[in-house]
Amino acid sequence: MQPMTKSPLQLARASYQPKLPQFLQGNVALVQGAETCSVADHTAIQELFPHTYGMPTITFEVGTEKSYPVKNVGVILSGGQAPGGHNVIAGLFDGLKKLNPANRLYGFMDGPNGLVEHKYIELTREIIDEYRNTGGFDIIGSGRTKLEEESQFDKGEKICKQLNINAIVIIGGDDSNTNACVLAEYFLRKKSGVQVIGCPKTIDGDLKNGMIETSFGFDTACKVYSELIGNIQRDASSSKKYWHFIRLMGRSASHIALECALQSQPNICIISEEVEAKNMTLTNIVENIVKVIVNRANFGLNFGTVLIPEGLIEFIPAMKKLIDELNKLLANNEEFNSLETDDEKRQYVKGKLSSESSKVYRDLPKGIARQLTLDRDPHGNVQVSLIETEKLLIEMVAKRLAQLKAEKTYKGKFVSVNHFFGYEGRCAIPSNFDADYCYSLGYTSAVLIAEGKTGYMASVRNLTAPAEKWIAGGVPITMMMNMEWRNEKMKPVIKKALVKLDSAPFKYFEQHRDDWADENSNYIYPGPVQYFGPSQVCDQPSRTLMLEKGL
Ligand code: FBP
User: Using CB atoms within 10 A of its CB, is residue 201 exposed (0-12), middle (13-18) or buried (19+)?
Assistant: First the structure.
């Protein structure tokens, strides 16, 4: 047998030709929409972005043959991995070569830092072909360096001049696209002649608005997690002995948890935005879970699934207050750092918090309370994503069930298993949806660049229709901005899209969750992502997108 270097699926996917919207398949003409304004804080955003504020939206339609001047383009992958990033780059490459075969593409290495530190490679057809339709960001790597300082921009400008780069494409989330716009503004102010185009990336699904229907990667990641949840549900209903507590990635918004719930119909799914809106406490959340467990136990069902969004803890108002107080208290606190034992540290913290936060802190399981004082990011904040909320809930639920058992109101047996799904889905082979969507976003970026646009985010809409009918174009990034407090300063940022409690996806969930919780399990088993086969199996967009479109 020959040694294997690629799986059969990898080989088959290498020759998959992503679908493009009809208007990107031939010559393209630009249609300008009306002038735009920011979602809020018009005056402040206009003052900060005098060159890019108010530009019109753009859509593409069939055009006549045109010759475009040669352009050299640099591309950057920014932030967390999301399935489809390689296809954005492949679409960008193919688009550039189609518009002018002399165009060249450079990849800056390991995120925005590559631009600042002048680390790059030229992306040739040979390299691109290796990565078509694959997951991951390893073609050039990614990183979380923020591009926001003038000195970083100056260094970026230098390498652009050196390589004769006319445009940069930044593939990133809300923060990276905000910075893409700041960079576009800088280049215009300095008359450098370098354009900047953004592409909407993040598995978290929180970069969306009227013009950006979804960020790429959300579809694939949720399909991967939903498959795993479905498998767990089959296992749970076969062995009938475990309650599975599953934490799902998604730094802040609960879109991933909600989408996975819509796909797999677990017994319980917590939505952080609802917790905040209803001013719920940790105890309320625990009581809700306990109620479902006790009810199912009454029917002899001592198993089930609970989905927990990663960002939950920061949406519980009392916990948020505690975390804010801890961030302030422990920032560069020599006194605290000099304490030797956990007990000393615990006593110190208890004594310094407000009485409300001190009570919340005291009521937490000791391990979690300790995590809150230990794991801090470089800015001195608690790294909430490292807090094992699923274990916290298991511990609190078990304690409450033990009380109920002693009171003889619970007769079941509670055995739990905890899971965290995040990295399992971020680099999966992109679904057909993400493969096509990403390729189209990359191709759209090439057209925007050829047409001399800057400060735009590539936009591909009408995504629940077949790919041929997708609408491609560009949205001025300033249109998505508002002013928010960040690190004690008001800053222009793209407004993060949290789960809206009046949205169709949440309403559907709300309407059905009691049925999913009760003794008649309504589990769905989505199975693995399918790449070949009938369109209704292979090309379906997310349930969130379908419901948002009223389908
Ligand atoms: P982006 O918003 O940069 O796409 O990253 C999202 C995410 O995957 C979150 O869901 C998660 O909390 C975080 O990245 C994890 O970060 P890291 O990659 O540094 O472990």
Answer: buried
- Does the beta carbon of 310 lie inside 6 Å of ligand 1? yes
Which positions are annotated as active-site residues?
204
Output the domain CATH number for residue 387: 3.40.50.460
- Distance CA(512)–CA(505), nearest Å, equals 11
The candidate with the shortest Cα–Cα distance to 265, out of 230, 234, 298, is 230
Are 129 and 83 part of one and the same domain? Answer: yes
- Distance of CA 79 from the midpoint of ligand 1 (Å): 7
Q: What is the mean pLDDT of the chain?
A: 95
Mean pLDDT of 426-437: 98
Nearest C-alpha to atom 2 of ligand 1 is from which residue? 202
Whether the CB of 174 sits within 6 Å of ligand 1:
no
Task: Tell me, yes or no, whether 324 and 195 share the same domain.
Answer: no
The protein residue with its alpha carbon nearest to ligand 1, atom 7, reads 80
Query: Which pLDDT score is estimated for 379?
Result: 64
Task: Decide if 7 is inside a domain.
Answer: no
- Establish if 266 belongs to a structural domain: yes
- Cβ(80) to ligand 1 under 6 A? yes
DSSP string, 71-126: -EEEEEEBSS--TTHHHHHHHHHHHHHHH-TT-EEEEETTSTHHHHTT-EEE--HH
Altogether, the residues listed in the chain come to a count of 551
Query: Does any ligand 1 atom lie closer than 6 A to the CB of residue 203?
Result: yes
Instruction: Please give the average per-residue pLDDT across 244-266, as a whole number.
Output: 97
The 10s digit of each residue's pLDDT in 27-56 is 999 999 999 999 999 999 999 999 999 999
Both 285 and 320 in a single domain? yes
Q: In terms of residue numbers, what domain contains 89?
A: 17-217+430-494
Pocket test for ligand 1, best of 144, 249, 388, 421 (most atoms within 8 A of CB): 249
Identify whether 3 is part of a domain: no
Domain check: are 125 and 141 in the same one?
yes
Q: Are strands 416-421 and 243-248 parallel, antiparallel or unpaired?
A: parallel
Shared domain for 188 and 282, answered yes or no, is: no
Q: What is the mean pLDDT of residues 279-303?
A: 97
CA of 495 to the centre of ligand 1 (A): 17
Residues 528 and 447 placed together within one structural domain of the fold: no
CATH number where 442 lies: 3.40.50.450
What percent of the chain is predicted at pLDDT more than 70?
99
Q: Is residue 12 part of a domain?
A: no
Least confident among 202-206, 248-252, 328-332: 328-332
Ligand 1 centroid to Cα of residue 251, in Å, is 6
